[in-house]
Every structure is written in C-alpha cells, then in structure tokens.
Amino acid sequence: MNFAAERAEMGRRELAVDPAAGPVESFAHELRRLRVRAGSPSYRALARKAGYSASALSSAASGTTLPSLDVALAYAGACGGDPRQWEARWQQARRELTDINEPVTDTPPVRAGAAGKPGDPLEWTVAADEAGYAGPYRLRRLIGAGSMGRVYLAFTPGGRAVAVKVIRADLAEDAEFRRRFAQEVAAARRVHGIFTAEVLDADTEGLRPWCASAYVPGPSLQDAIAHHGQLPAESIWLLAAGVTEALQNIQAAGLVHRDLKPSNVLLALDGPRVIDFGIARASDATHLTRTGIQMGSPQFIAPEHLLGHDITPAADVFALGGLIAFAASGQGPFGDGVDPAVLYRVVHEPPSLHHLTDELRELVEACLHKQPEHRPELDAIITTCGERSAATSLKLSSQWLPTAYLADIQRRIATVATL
Ligand SMILES: Nc1ncnc2c1ncn2[C@@H]1O[C@H](COP(=O)(O)OP(=O)(O)OP(=O)(O)O)[C@@H](O)[C@H]1O
Ligand SMILES: [Mg+2]
After folding, report:
1. 188, 277 in Cβ contact below 8 A?
2. Is 266 near ligand 1, meaning CB less than 6 Å away?
3. Which of 299, 295, 301 is closest to 353 using CA atoms?
4. Is the pTM of this model over 0.90?
C-alpha cells in the first residue's frame, strides 16, 4: 500500500523510522517489514485477525515506544510471524531499553524488596493511547518500573526531558486509588525545592493516569550502590544534608513523604534529588493490603507507620536513618526483602549498624529511634552533617561523589542527549 492510501485509511501517514536510532525504532522497523512481507495488509484487516484495534497496531509499529508483548505478538501473528521468534525479539528490545537505566556494567541492578512486588513488567499492558504520548509528553524510553507503574523518560513539546510515571492498568481501575492519587499529586505539586524533583503535570482522570516530574540525570541510590558500592563518609554527609533539606521543603508544603527509600533518591551531579513524595499515600499500606499488593521496602518504613498509627514528619526521619545506613553499608539496618521478620525487627529490635563509623552510627541511631518524638529535628540533622563533615562547611561541588558514580551520571547525560 502506498503512503497516500495508508493515510486515507489511518487518517495520518506512518512516519519513517530509522532502525539504527534505538531498540524501539528497530523493533518497529522489523514489524513494518513483516507487514510488507505479508503483502502490506491494511491495519483494519490486521485488526480483524489480531483482536486489537487498528490504532493499537499502528502505534505498535510507530517507533515511539515499545508495544506491550501482547500487542506485538498479535501484530506479528496476524502477519504470519513466528510467535517464539517475535517474543525473543521483543525481550531483546526490552533489555536494551532498560539498559539506559544502568549503562555501566552487565550486572542487573539489585532492587531492595523487588521480590514482593507484583512487578514483572511483562504483566503490564500498554493502552493504545499510552503508546507514544502521555498528554503532551513524548515517551522515549522505559527507565524504571515500580509497584505503581512504569516510568518513562519523555520530552516536553519544547524539548526538556521529564520522567513520566504511568499508573498500572489495574490500579487505574480502582476508584479509591484514583481519588487518592489525584489528591496526593495535587499536594506534591505544592512542593518546591532544590533537592526535590518538581512535579510538573499530571492527568488523574484519563484512561491511564500519569504524572510527570523533572527528569533527573543520575542513578537512584539503590542502583548506584548495587553497581558502584558504598559511598564514602564525605559523600554521605552531603547526601544526608541534601535529603534532609528536601524533607524540609516537603514538610513546608504540609506533606510527609511516606516512602523515602534508596529507589526514591536520585544522585545528580549537583546533589541528591528526592522523588515520589506523598504519592505513596495513594496506595498506602492498608489500601495495598486490601487490594492484595505488597509493600516494596518495609525496612525503611517507620514502626508507627507499620503499626497503622498516626504518621508525622518524624516517619521520614526514620526512613532517612535507614537510607544513610544503606548508603554507608549497602544494607538496610533491619535486613532486606519483604520477610515478616524484617517488619518484626523494624518494630521491636535495635538496628544492625556495626558496619558504620561511630559518627554515622550516632546519627543513624538517633533517626531510627522507635519513638517518633525522640527522633532529631531536620535542622539538627543538617547541623550534625555540617559538623561531622571534614570540610569547613557543607558545599556541593560536581565532585561530591566518587569517580565511578560521576562517570555513570555523565553517561546518562550523554545518552539522553542522543534520544
Ligand atoms: N524524575 C526522575 N528522573 C529520573 N529517573 C527517574 C525519575 N523518577 C523515577 N525514575 C527512575 O524510575 C525508577 C522507578 O521508579 P518507581 O518510583 O516507579 O519505582 P520504585 O521507587 O523502585 O518502587 P516503588 O513503586 O515501590 O516506589 C527509579 O528508581 C528511577 O531510576
Ligand atoms: Mg519510586
């Protein structure tokens, strides 16, 4: 079929894709070639065979985002492709895509608590209208996946990079989740600070809710520790002070983060950035349990939160203590995973901090106090970081992290520039 005929059929022309541009483009190019080999059936004809709409199928080959496995296989099957071969091809493209998030080594990232997440991205389907755009933002790469959905690197119409979290289809259907999500995103948009990634935009009403925040070029603390090892004390004082300042901004907007943990702290050239503040409330523990979804990382959740008591900003101080211990030792202070034993230890047992220096241990212990009212205030934490740091005053420079970390950040900056 020529372009004019196709345009008449689809209402728009299928733009050319450059297979060398990346895994998404290359996968789309292969799909299109298969369709040509099948005699260029119209998308409408394919839709009848595939059980997906013509627009879902044409989006699958648009080269803007990787289609879901279901849609890809339906497309390929309707064109006579071998499902096993196409599944392998799709898996390969997906692996290449996720590589942008971990461009440094071949080791897969170690994600604390991943075992308990309902989280294999293969389970998620991409709605036809999600493939390619979330609102005005052009989705370019899948950069992460968590318990609420997937995170894409996207671009604003003006060309700035943003991170778009697209909520999982099953949560999107949950009216209670949607109500809370709308509420929490509105609150999160009131947070302004230099150590927080600003929430820029959201759609809480559409078929698949999403929210967009400033893209931070840098690994999460979780992935960075897994790839490059623990941080030295000097980096940790700066990390702790930056995260504490972020908590001050979050508190100033009347919010509690509720889910501060290593995957929610990103490491940029000019300091840490806290993400996902408040949003966890949309799917908080009680609601999650009701819907059968498990929590990701209970070792960073304060005892009063786990016990279902009232939560105050001191719950974030508890999480900060765990985060500092993790940055210094590569381990959570109560063990890893979603084992009930971890929950028990958080509530009843002292943290295990023997890998820490005396100075770090003192601060972490104070933050991890079981009684929220005995945990230190945010101002006092920043003062302690300043006093303990070897520098005369806390100052973030572009050398605040070890070389391997900085190289990782630079690689991400370079990759984003090529998209
Ligand atoms: N603003 C952002 N800039 C850059 N990368 C981001 C941004 N937001 C999220 N990411 C990436 O996406 C990953 C996944 O985030 P997500 O919040 O979905 O999952 P999580 O924090 O690992 O788990 P959970 O859903 O339990 O919170 C992050 O760890 C980070 O690597
Ligand atoms: Mg997160």
Report:
1. yes
2. yes
3. 299
4. no
In the chain, the domains with their CATH numbers are 3-100 (1.10.260), 112-215 (3.30.200.20), 221-409 (1.10.510.10)
Residue of the CA atom closest to atom 18 of ligand 1: 146
Distance between CA atoms of residues 65 and 23, nearest Å? 9
Mutational pocket test of ligand 1: of 100, 143, 336, the residue with most ligand atoms within 8 Å of the beta carbon: 143
* H or E segment and range at residue 203: strand 199-203
Contact 416, 161 (CB under 8 A): yes
71 closest CA partner among 36, 27, 37:
27
CA separation for the pair 352, 333 (Å, rounded): 5
Closest CA to 388 of 237, 177, 229, 209: 237
Rg (CA), the chain: 23
pLDDT in tens, 273-325: 999 987 777 665 445 444 444 455 688 999 999 888 989 999 999 999 999 99
Smallest-distance ligand from the CA of 213: 1
152 by DSSP, 3-state: which?
Answer: strand
* DSSP tag of 106: S
Q: Report H helices in 42-174.
A: 43-50, 54-60, 69-78, 83-98, 169-172
